[in-house]
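Quick one: structure tokens for this chain, please?
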Amino acid sequence: MIPRYLESRLRRLLRTFPAVGLLGPRQVGKTTLAQAIAHDANDLYLDLENPADLEKLADARGYLQARRDRLIVLDEVQRAPGLFQVLRGVIDERIQQGEQAGQFLLLGSASLELLRQSGESLAGRIAHIELSSLDVREVGPDDHDRLWTRGGFPRAFLAEGDEASAVWREQFIRTYLERDVPALGPRIPAETLRRFWTMLAHGQGGLLNAASLAGSLAVDGKTIAKYLDLMVDLLLVRRLPPFHANVRKRLVKSPKVYVRDSGIVHTLLRLDDEESVLGHPVAGMSWEGFALETLIRAAPDRTRASFYRTATGVEVDLILELPRNRLWAIEFKRGLAPKTDRGLWTAIEDLDPDRTFVVYSGDERYPLRNGVEAIGLREMALELSAL
């Protein structure tokens, strides 16, 4: 098992809340992490995609009440929507008996449905936390390029070779399109959704242009919004909102859209190895998305992420509104000799951030000018996670 940075935070939440919801896409390592935490022989793990485990919950209240004083892990809990009302009663009874925390760990791969169900039934009793794919803090320094090329899903990253990794990612995509999406209810042809996903990969990190996407897929704008909501809910796509600053300039209102895992971007575009990626026009934006995801997940709780862009093209790739009213501006530059442009200096004048960084592919940290620092991705992630 690759040690995950999220583990210590997850353990803290389990010591504080009766229930914790661990969200994340399939195959990202939720089950492995949950089983590492629930290692005590007294703890219980149930996979609700397993008919035998699901059958045990036919009388869920009776079954769960008989297994008190232990951590119960329920995997793919969104498969049993009626369970949340039962959990509420069981949790309250265990609290009255002195079990204030660490009762249930709920795993789910569809964030919106799980958040809605748990929010309605377990308000005040549950905390949510998201496990994303591996990032540069969790692999060796020599593995960063491989992580970017293959993506952070453990089996894709750890595959014996690039071809095996590409095959795994292709099967991962097919599984989502042919099995998981239909299981959630939407009746969307798998080929249509794959084309939509591929178009997002081609436009990685670009402003959302729903009209253009709708025209290419011969659907309307509302349908595009529905497709995008689905991919965001499945934790496969990030919709990064624009930063709303009190400046006397016209700001863009459309969000940016990123396919969250760089390996999935490359597979959708049929780029199976590093040479293929480097030779493709998407390379720069793919690395930007890879770096952006790393920093957003490394940032402390209650951080708000956005981007800044004016109608004239002045832009900062990532704005982090950190706790205690701190504002950090971050620009991404793939390569070993990062350079700044006039647009960044104009944005700094507009926003007056507390700190400004240019995150690049190298490891050395050094000042540029006017308080701007060039910094490697790993060091930037570690600095954020230490806040």
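Residues 141-385 form one domain.
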